[in-house]
């Protein structure tokens, strides 16, 4: 048998059967037109030839791999331009796969592993994109390799070995056709979670009903999350959650466990308590705490793994950046920003990375009180608009937009709308309830703020982000004039996160307004030790609807002797 080394390109129309069913003659006419105007002349110009045509695609070979890649990119761009005038649900889009390998030549056709691999890479490519093997990428280094994003090793159907692949356009690295191409490794895609049926011990019917109700509510909450994928228990999930309910009188205790399936290990156990005298409230609180613990427990586990070794995997880097942003130190947020920049060079349209990067630019809202640079505000605003346009179904992105309005624009009504949009997607979003409390406090509704913050606090109690709960409570009690509780919560925030600037500010103001000179002096000295250049005039303004509340906070700072 004759063999040769050649560059093989496989191309296929995405959803061809659906397109033909919807508009047979129009689809076939446009397919023929694209063949005559784009593919035939382009392949010929690149020194290639079509080996065979299929009903919805073709197989071509090229003597030059560089010319093959150039043709593939030009063809995809031409198809996209030609189809722009067609309604989106009727547009033709191709997937392409490209490999260089040794093939068998027989009667004008080519066969072998190289052809199979090109076809499987085509099946993995995103719509309108190209997926190439490492062998192809090695041949185009220095010519156009920077146009492709590294998507790691793929497990391709009927290919026994993992294949290192690269994707064009680079921002489509996260849009691989995962239905046909699962990735190798636990962090190369979003983590998967399955819920085992929640169990009730004993014969208490209320506990059984609560376990079943919480099971359904948590399942609905996890199904809407953008950071994890909820799958069936028998579908080989990365993580499994179990919960056991036990009742005594009106009291119910729930024990949640999170377990990794590979290696099999329980890495989180948490006990939660509820009151059966109000079953609906018990369901609301317990399901919220369970869903939040699962959400952050999984992401924390992935972040810990990612921190152990250098990684170029976008999903792992995303989780590690999120881990840093749960902290309170500027250095952590700066490290998160660097990770997000790396992700965005590979995936510019990764909505979560875009939103998180926007959040890092205004991180001073969370961990400090100093002014934020105008250029960072502008970039954050643009980034959040882009993130929402990329994915309007992310509770996190809407929450950050709410924080932006709360802290930057002062449009508190817009801030509430953003947070409520997040609740439409994920009613159990604990951070959302806490942020709603911040906003309600500025709107002059501190009693409502306390309820919102405390609703979120139950779910965040064992989370790294918990320092924001006593921080938010300190601000609320400060506004209410309850200086004892304001001081207690500011100290709790500082115990949880030493040196937290906002908590130091609340502590100093509460001591000053309460007329407690000893505590005031200690708070003043700690604040000046962490920021020797601190001036009251330089404090970033909080947008209270009633300006006298903000004036009272500043008067408290003056009372302890902080410089104007």
From TrEMBL:
| PROSITE patterns, per database record | GUANYLATE_CYCLASE_2
Q: Which InterPro entries match?
A: A/G_cyclase (IPR001054), Adenylyl/Guanylyl_Cyclase_3/4 (IPR050697), Nucleotide_cyclase (IPR029787), TPR-like_helical_dom_sf (IPR011990)
Provide the Guanylate cyclase domain boundaries: 7-122
- Determine the domain of life of the protein's source: Bacteria
UniProt-listed Pfam families: Guanylate_cyc
Originating organism: Ruegeria meonggei
Q: What is the lineage of its organism?
A: Bacteria, Pseudomonadati, Pseudomonadota, Alphaproteobacteria, Rhodobacterales
Q: What is this protein called?
A: Adenylate and Guanylate cyclase catalytic domain protein
What molecular function does GO assign, one term?
adenylate cyclase activity
What PANTHER family does this protein's entry cite?
A: ADENYLATE CYCLASE, TERMINAL-DIFFERENTIATION SPECIFIC-RELATED, PH-SENSITIVE ADENYLATE CYCLASE RV1264
- SUPFAM superfamilies attached here? Nucleotide cyclase, TPR-like
Listed GO biological process terms? cAMP biosynthetic process; intracellular signal transduction
